[in-house]
Each structure stands twice: as C-alpha cells, then as structure tokens.
C-alpha cells in the first residue's frame, strides 16, 4: 500500500458510509459501559462522571484501535430527562422503571436542552474526545430511536395503542421524532461525525406497522441529518430480518444489526439500496462467553462470507460490561491481520456446550402452564425488557394459575438450553414447551388467551 492509499480510521468509516470503495474493513467496537471495565469503573461511574467516562473512552481508543467509536451507549438519556425513573446497576446501562405517559397520556411537547439531565456531561465528553482523537477516529453520537423512546414514555400500553388508538401513537411518534432531531442537533454541534438512531423495539413490530407508524418519522430524521452533511446509522436489535427493506426505504447511510439477523442475506437487501450495513459479532456466545480464538474465528469466517464494500465490522449491539478484553483484541487482530490470524487458527476447535446437562421440564404433566421467556438480558436489552415485562404482567394478573421464568442468554447454561430447545431468535416466549412468540412482543390479551387454553 502506498502512502497515498493510507487513510485514517475516520476516513475509512466516512468513505464506507458514503458508499465509496475502500481497501480495508472498518471496525467499530460498541464499547458502552464496557469502556469503564478497561479502567476499573462500574457502569454507574462511567455514565455519571465526566472524567471517568473520558478516561475510559481514551482507553478504548488505545486498546481496541477503533476506526469509529461511540461516546455513550445509553438509551435512557432522553427518557430520564422526560421524567422516567431509572434503575441503576453496576454492570449495565440503567433501565426504565417508570413510564410517565402510562398513567397520564398527555404529551407535553418538551424537547431536551443542552442543560438537561446528564447531557452537559455527555456533550462535554464529546467535545473532549473530538479534540483528543477526532482527527483519526469517527465519533458516534447515539440517541434512543422514536419507537423505543415512545415505549419508555408510554410503557407496554403502546402495543395496545397501535391497535386501539392509532392517532395517539402517530402523535407520540411525531413528538419522539422531534426529540431525535433535537438530540442530533446537539450531538452534531458537539462534533459528532455519525448520528446513530438506536431503536431496538423496531424488531418487535411488523413491516406493516413500521410503514404505518415509523416510515415518515425516520425519513424525516435521516433527511435532517443528511442536510447537516453528517452521516447516519439506523441501529436495530433482535430479529429485524422482516423489516430490513422498509428500514432501507427511510434512506439512512447505514443499518446496523445483531446476531439474530443473517447479515449476508441482509446485505443483499442493503446493497440494492446502496446502504452500508454494520455488524454482527455475537455478544454472548462469542464476545462474553467465548475464547479469544472463538472471536478470531468468527470474525475471519464473517470476513470470508461477506463482500467487504459497504460493510462495517462491529459487535451486534452494546458490548456486555464483562466482555474479556482479550476477546475484543482477538477481533481487532483478525480484522487488521487476517492472514496471520488464519495461521494462528489452524488447530482451532470450537468450544462445546453440555446439552445433556440441560433438564427440560415434563411439559405434558405440569400442574399449571409454564411461560418461559428467553432473553439476551432483560436488564440491558430493551426488546427483552418489554417482552419480559409483558409476560410477567400477564402472568401476575392470573392469580397464580400459571408459572413464569426468565432464561438470560448471558449464562452459559442458558445458552445450552436455547441450543437444546432449538430457539433461533431472542427474545422469545415458550409456553409449555411450544414456541409462541419469536422476536415479537405479544399483545397482552392474546398472550393471556394462549396461557388460559392450557389451564387444567
């Protein structure tokens, strides 16, 4: 490679988002609260303390050599400003514990200001990171997407509203769209190169509902960002396979997906629209629970299966806090030195899971229906949170006539259970051994009806 062909990571990211040919694969580790792990800070410290966040982000930049890097991966920033109470834990971003529009549905129209909530701290860190690494690293500003933010404000009632009160949902999404535009404005002013709209719950609705409620707001958001001459990304979690095409129609510069999506097939769709795609190293089976070699092998196999244009290599979503540092370094090794990595993997053997140790309930002889909710982690994954809360609420209202349990994919024994039961996508709900809902949040009345059919 000649000197003229060498480009910074930032240039590599921006060229990819402009759909230009490049001679390398861009790499973006989505190290949210995991950034704190590198410096010995917990999630609460890194999301509330400006200096600790800045120090942690510099460490990510040094250790993981990213081409692009998010400043904060916390989908509750806007919700907190708008009156949602948060529940804080030491190894995950906070989760929403209350929904102000659930009891009083009146929409205030309040938009975030630079002085609200944790925004002064976050905007300061953005400016500091821009000065420190912004010449060679593309910086990402992440904001909670309109549908997930509407769910934070309204709670699980929004899924009923989509059938019973469509005009209200449209009004609420118009409001949350305006919040996204305001957040984009603040982040752009603070120096962000890429604005990512992160909307996990998009995977939980049908393409028809997406077109009905979200196509217009998203198109307007991405038009606004493009008019500012800034790149955009549409980030969705869960099995969004069915909605990739309607997402493309809103015209983002990039779509990022997690391991629930076959990225090779999804890229065939995004390529038709000339939109770049990002992803999708598995968060749990590889990054959290795998070995360094597991991560190197997955990365090499992914690189060998997908065309390198219009693609950004990244984890499927926000990296778990306890992701071993050596696993992420293994991904970095693979993307930077693939030939050397292939030689290192010549004697590689994938770790096996003990499926025989998994005890499956005797579903036919249960005293009462058993609802099993399989999640990535209901404390960190928004789609998982709302599916778990919906199921827990329905079962709780049935006065002990049904049982419920959550299996989190962050535990190795639960990975084995998912494999043994043949569950393909998360989150999912199984009732008495039968998969009923895969990566879609059920209508509470429908879920109750399904459970009641099995009451003896």
Write a concise synopsis of the structure shown.
The chain is of the alpha/beta class. The protein is built from 21 helices and 13 strands.
Q: At the first level of CATH, what is the class of the largest domain?
A: Alpha Beta
The tally of beta strands, per DSSP, is 13
What shape does the CA trace take?
globular
Averaged pLDDT, please?
A: 94
- Helix percent reads 40-55%
Strand content: 5-15%
CATH architecture of the largest domain: Alpha-Beta Barrel
Structural summary, described in words:
This protein has 456 residues and is of the alpha/beta class. The chain folds into two domains: 336 residues, Alpha-Beta Barrel (TIM Barrel); 98 residues, Glutaredoxin, CATH 3.40.30. 45% of the residues lie in helices and 14% in strands. It is built from 21 helices and 13 strands. The strands form three sheets. Strands 1-4-5-6-7-8-9 form a seven-stranded parallel beta sheet, sandwiched between helices. Strands 11-10-12-13 form a four-stranded mixed beta sheet, sandwiched between helices. Strands 2-3 form a two-stranded antiparallel ribbon. Helix 17 crosses helix 18. The longest helix has 24 residues. It starts with 8 loop residues before the first helix and ends with a helix.
């Amino acid at each position: 490679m000649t000197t003229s062909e060498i480009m910074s990571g930032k240039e590599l990211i921006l060229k990819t988002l402009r759909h230009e040919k490049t001679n390398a694969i861009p790499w973006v580790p989505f190290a949210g609260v995991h950034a704190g792990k590198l410096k010995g800070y917990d999630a609460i410290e890194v999301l509330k303390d400006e200096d600790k966040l800045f120090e942690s982000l510099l460490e990510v930049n040094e250790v993981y050599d990213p081409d692009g890097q998010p400043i904060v991966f916390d989908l509750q920033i806007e919700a907190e400003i708008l009156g949602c109470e948060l529940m804080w834990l030491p190894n995950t971003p906070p989760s929403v514990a209350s929904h102000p529009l659930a009891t009083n549905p009146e929409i205030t129209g309040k938009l975030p200001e630079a002085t609200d909530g944790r925004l002064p701290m976050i905007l300061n860190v953005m400016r500091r990171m821009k000065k420190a690494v912004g010449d060679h690293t593309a910086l990402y500003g992440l904001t909670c997407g309109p549908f997930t933010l509407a769910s934070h404000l309204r709670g699980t009632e929004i899924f009923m509203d989509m059938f019973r009160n469509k005009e209200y949902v449209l009004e609420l999404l118009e409001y949350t769209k305006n919040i996204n535009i305001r957040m984009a404005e603040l982040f752009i002013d603070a120096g962000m190169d890429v604005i990512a709209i992160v909307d996990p719950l998009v995977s939980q609705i049908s393409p028809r509902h997406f077109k009905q409620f979200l196509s217009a707001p998203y198109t307007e958001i991405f038009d606004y960002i493009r008019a500012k001459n800034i790149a955009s990304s549409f980030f969705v979690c869960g099995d969004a396979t069915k909605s990739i095409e309607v997402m493309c129609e809103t015209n983002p510069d990039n779509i990022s997906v997690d391991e629930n999506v076959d990225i090779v097939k999804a890229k065939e769709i995004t390529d038709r629209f000339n939109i770049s795609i990002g992803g999708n190293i598995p968060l749990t089976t590889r990054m959290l629970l795998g070995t360094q070699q597991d991560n190197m092998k997955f990365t090499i196999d992914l690189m060998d299966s997908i065309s390198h244009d219009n693609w950004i290599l990244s984890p499927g979503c926000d990296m778990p806090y306890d992701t071993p540092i050596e696993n992420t370094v293994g991904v970095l090794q693979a993307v930077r030195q693939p030939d050397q990595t292939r030689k290192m993997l010549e004697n590689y053997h994938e770790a096996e899971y003990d499926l025989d140790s998994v005890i499956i309930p005797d579903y036919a002889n249960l005293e009462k229906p058993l609802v099993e909710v399989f999640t990535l982690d209901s404390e960190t994954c928004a789609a998982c949170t709302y599916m778990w809360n919906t199921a827990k609420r329905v079962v709780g209202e049935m006065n002990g006539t049904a049982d419920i349990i959550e299996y989190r994919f962050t535990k190795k024994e639960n990975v084995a259970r998912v494999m043994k039961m043949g569950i393909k996508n998360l989150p999912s709900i199984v009732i008495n051994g039968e998969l009923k809902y895969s990566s879609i949040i059920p209508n509470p009345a429908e879920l109750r009806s399904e459970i009641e059919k099995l009451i003896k």
